[in-house]
What we know:
Elements: E1 15-23, E2 27-34, E3 40-42, H1 54-65, H2 70-80, H3 87-105, E4 115-126, E5 135-144, E6 151-157, H4 162-176, E7 182-185, H5 190-199, E8 201-202, E9 207-208, E10 211-214, H6 227-240, H7 249-266, H8 276-280, H9 290-300
Parallel strand pairs: 4-7, 7-10
Antiparallel strand pairs: 1-2, 2-3, 4-5, 5-6, 8-9
Helix pairs in contact: 1-2, 1-3, 2-3, 3-7, 3-9, 4-5
Bound molecules: zinc ion.
Amino acid sequence: MAERIICSKCESEKIKKDGKRKTENKGLIQRYKCLDCRTRFVVDDGFFRMRNSPLKITQAVDLYFRGASTRGVQGHQGMFFPHNASNVSIYAWVLKYSKMISKFTNKLKLKVGFEAQVDEIEFHRRKSSKAKLGTEKNFFIDSVCPQTKFMLSSEYMRTRSCRDIKAVIQRIKDRTDTQIKIMTTDGWNAYTNTLKKVYGYNNKTGKYNVVHNRVVVSEEQGNFNHPIERLHNSVRARTKVMRGFHGSINSANAILKGYEIFYNFINKHQAIGKCPYELATDLKLTQNNKWIELIKLSKTSF
Ligand SMILES: [Zn+2]
């Protein structure tokens, strides 16, 4: 992956450096000039036209995924930064940067083990902050590689129909090619056919290209006791303090995408002593503030 700077107007690659621009929140930033159309521009590093500094914004996002509420983040930052951002702005940053980074991280090719565990969490999403509109039952479907602990795919969805599950399974296949040989799921029926459809049948071996390891657990056992369950405990602990999602399904999905980024790229996993991305991808992050680095990569890498 390389960084490429192109003209913001005509997309020409014939550009030259053209001094620096002084900005209030980011200090001096490099300015460029296009040799084809003469436009002068700065590269959008993901913070273009934001009124707050990258440090403050990424600190807010980080605190949020570590468990603080948007009001908690606001209270914390009010002590350390001159202009206090509203909790509404903080929520908007969480959504914006979660979506931005996941466009980049979703494209990374993975090197993982032979098994993928897939499971779902049921959520009751409040349709609006007005209680009388009631709740809707939704599902968060996700998958983890037990070897690298990397979260392979996740999606927050209205239902857990075959079509919804297919989106998650298809993304696992797209990102891991033929690496996955065993897919472990719970007893939910929709998985069997979806796995067959996505992975297909091999006429030479007379078998499906992936073995479906269906684990039916009793009520009193309660769980698989697998890495996927431990991941789910963390997701549940994080979302519990949000007192359920409210608002649109897209916002809920964006927040969980952000959690996926936090889980895979930011937070050190105790069982492996590093972040899952370090085992499962070729990506090298070198800066202390990995949020800023990922945001920049999502804007400039191709
Ligand atoms: Zn140009």
